[in-house]
Design a protein that fits this description.
Elements: E1 26-31, E2 41-47, E3 54-61, H1 68-75, H2 85-101, H3 105-117, E4 122-128, H4 131-134, E5 159-164, E6 183-189, H5 198-208, E7 216-222, H6 226-236, E8 240-244, E9 246-249, E10 255-259, E11 267-269, H7 274-278, E12 285-289, H8 299-307, E13 312-316, H9 322-337, H10 342-356, E14 366-370, H11 374-377, H12 387-393, H13 408-415, E15 427-432, H14 438-451, E16 455-460, H15 470-484, H16 489-503, H17 533-553, E17 558-563, H18 574-588, E18 595-602, H19 613-616, E19 618-622, H20 630-640, H21 645-662, H22 667-683
Parallel strand pairs: 1-4, 4-5, 5-14, 6-7, 6-8, 8-12, 12-13, 15-18, 15-19, 16-17, 17-18
Antiparallel strand pairs: 1-2, 2-3, 9-10, 10-11, 13-14
Helix pairs in contact: 5-9, 9-10, 12-14, 16-17, 17-18, 20-21, 21-22
Length: about 675
């Protein structure tokens, strides 16, 4: 978004060509630097919805349009203590009077009313150039008819505000590219101070982003050192960075974010040094949910974030308590979870604060500053498959994906750089002891890739309940391919080739095409051929399958996940001598191919993989949870099952007993603990 000033024909010095991008239902109010001739601040209103946008050059605001006592009244809203409602109303009237005096208020409100009548949300961008005016709470301007601040006004879908603050040397494309799932959120807790109630806020955010399943990936770092925070930014590459903590003022009266790692010296994030963190990664959105992170003292930090490439920053224009801060976060991320734009999310947060405390003015605190249109900040590419379809595909009575709330680091490893079409590594092995949640983890990630349009194939030979053959695996894969495209020519040709190989040595692609029978017996000898040819026919069949899978995955990618390949399931040497060299390696190792393989294996099954696959595959290992993780894990599982706080406490007590008895915590024990809890509740 480029709002650099140009000289326009109206002589306002505010420019009109830079407003050509305004979409419908969007207004831009601009107050420029004072003119050299002393005539005051030039003003302009630009209204989207026409080409070019309708513009209303306003009257100049005199340099002293707010007397010192009134200016002081406005600035008092940014003191650490919550402002009184009458102070907010007085300030809203003052700012509304200023816009009315410039002749901008009536045409602006007409646009807002037309948007409301059309049932469309209205957005107003505030491009206030003079520093002494930019930090005033323009979002609080009131409707002169009702006296209600428009940022929480009634009578329509709501009016959202954003402060346009584009640095002149802003890098890159002002409209960032659309995002693919999963969206990534990194929560940074700056202090271990219990008064912050950080755990409650994090729990609320996670709960609001839990549905639709798999759309968000949330990680938390607590009181990190600067190196640790930079590493988290680099590894997670979050789209959203959320800070919970305290802001203080340095010797120059500038706002700084203080981080206090336990047992180490505290350090600060300032406008002067934040560029160092942004070299690790630049988030799209930064949320500073701490006191006074959008007032005048915080302006250097906000400007540095925007200058560093952050598309939007949300802060608080004064002090805010931990409870309302958490309430704002829940409503804000609830709106983002519904794929609403960031300006609407801020509006949702305001409304939540207003409804929770009508006699307070916490709702007046949130401020949104942007350097691109709010719609574009977290604009996502539409998922190629609906959530309900993926839910149905990965539903299983043994694995409730909603319980995949643990293993955050392991899930990130499986996402492997968060590529939308599957991991970067050709072959990934997810391993660990029995009942450590391997299948649930893999299926939860497959769910997200499936939403992105990837062809995801899950085959678990353990479900057959007997010694499985390589042909069982082929039939399982074919069954899923039929679901994806039962009449697909590539699939029909593959079945034709497999049927011919089943009956004889050679294949051809001549119609009429044959269908592979449902029997799981491979004919080891065929008329006119020696027994020794049987193995070669199996190799050829699997390579035909690999070629077809490559073709299916060429457009959106393909991930084949295989479980149950251990010696207790498949016949002897099947993996080493048949599946690995003739299906897995040809499928995943083709240069430029978009097919990937994920293997799920217990630790004792790794030996079934042949060299070099066993040593070159990327490995993700799951172990028991640590005892100190019980409270967090039980809380996450409890929220996934919608348990009350009382029931979560009882479940946590049961889990502590089970962990003491078994010496470790696994997902199986979590389910066992839940069963005991349900049984006890029935007996009460």
């Amino acid at each position: 978004m480029d709002t650099d000033t140009d000289t326009d024909t109206a002589g306002t010095g505010t420019g009109t060509d830079s407003a050509a991008w305004l979409p419908p239902h969007t207004a831009l109010i601009r107050i420029g630097e004072p003119a050299a001739d002393g005539s005051g601040h030039p003003t302009l209103l630009a209204l989207g919805g026409s080409d070019p946008p309708a513009t209303h050059p306003g009257l100049a605001l005199p340099p002293d349009f707010l007397p010192p006592d009134q200016l002081l009244s406005c600035e008092e809203l940014f003191t650490p203590d919550a402002p009184l409602p009458e102070q907010v109303r007085a300030t809203a009237r003052l700012l509304g009077g200023a816009l009315a005096g410039a002749g901008l208020l009536d045409p602006w409100l007409d646009q807002v009313r037309r948007s409301h009548a059309a049932g469309s949300p209205a957005l107003t961008l505030l491009d206030v150039r003079p520093p002494q005016l930019r930090s005033l709470p323009w979002e609080l301007v009131a409707d002169p008819g009702t006296g209600v601040s428009l940022c929480v006004g009634v009578g329509g879908p709501g009016l959202a505000f954003a402060r346009v603050d584009p640095p002149k040397d802003a890098p890159g494309d002002p409209r960032p590219p659309a995002l693919r799932l999963p969206l990534r959120l990194l929560v940074v807790v700056g202090d271990t101070d219990a008064a912050l109630r950080a755990d409650d806020e994090i729990a609320g955010v996670r709960a609001r982003l839990a549905e639709p399943f798999g759309e968000w990936h949330v990680e938390v770092v607590r009181a990190p050192g600067s190196t640790e925070l930079a590493a988290a930014l680099r590894d997670i590459t979050p789209h959203v960075l959320h800070f919970i903590g305290h802001q203080q003022r340095d010797g120059a009266d500038q706002g700084v974010l203080t981080v206090r790692p336990p047992g180490r010296e505290p350090w600060q994030i300032t406008g002067a040094n934040v560029h160092g963190l942004l070299t690790a990664h630049v988030p799209r959105l930064v949320v500073l949910n701490a006191c006074d992170t959008a007032g005048r003292s915080a302006e250097p930090l906000l400007a540095a974030l925007l200058r560093g490439g952050v598309a939007a920053v949300v802060g608080m224009s004064g002090g805010i308590g931990s409870e309302p801060a958490g309430r704002f976060s829940e409503a804000f991320y609830g709106a983002l979870g519904r794929a609403e734009a960031v300006d609407r999310a801020v509006l949702a947060g305001r409304h939540a604060l207003l409804l929770a405390a009508l006699d307070r003015s916490d709702w007046a605190r949130p401020v949104l500053a942007v350097r691109t249109h709010p719609d574009a900040v977290l604009h996502r590419s539409p998922a190629l498959r609906p959530a309900a379809e993926s839910d149905a595909r990965f539903a299983d009575e043994r694995w409730n994906l909603r319980h995949a709330v643990d293993r955050v680091a392991e899930r990130r490893g499986l996402f492997d750089g968060f590529a939308p079409a599957g991991p970067a590594a050709p072959v990934t092995v997810v391993t660990g002891g029995p009942a450590t949640g391997k299948a649930t983890l893999v299926r939860s990630v497959l769910h997200t890739w499936h939403r992105n349009g990837v062809l995801t194939l899950w085959t678990d030979l353990r479900t057959l309940g007997r010694t499985a053959t390589w042909l069982d695996l082929v039939h399982g894969i074919l069954g899923q391919l039929r679901e994806a495209g039962p009449e697909d020519t590539r699939l029909r040709l593959l079945e034709h080739r497999l049927a011919q190989l089943h009956d004889r040595w050679t294949t051809d692609d001549q119609e009429p095409w044959l269908a592979l029978g449902t029997d799981r017996v491979w004919q080891e000898t065929v008329p006119g051929n020696s027994v020794g040819h049987a193995a070669d026919r199996r190799h050829t069949a699997l390579r035909h399958l690999a070629d077809t899978l490559h073709e299916f995955g060429a457009e959106h990618g393909l991930v084949l996940a295989l479980a149950g390949l251990g010696p207790r399931t498949v016949e002897h040497l099947t993996v080493q001598q048949l599946l690995a060299p003739h299906l897995i390696e040809p499928l995943a190792g083709r240069p430029g191919g978009r097919a990937r393989v994920v293997l799920i294996a217990n630790e004792d099954e790794i030996a079934t993989l042949p060299f070099p696959l066993r040593d070159t595959a990327r490995r993700i290992t799951l172990g028991p949870f640590r005892t100190e993780e019980i409270e967090e894990i039980v809380g996450d599982y409890g929220r996934a099952r919608d348990l009350s706080a009382e029931h979560r406490d009882r479940w946590e007590a049961l889990m502590a007993l089970l962990v003491d008895h078994h010496g470790g915590l696994t997902p199986r024990l979590l389910r066992k603990g839940m069963g005991l809890l349900v049984k006890k509740e029935r007996l009460r």
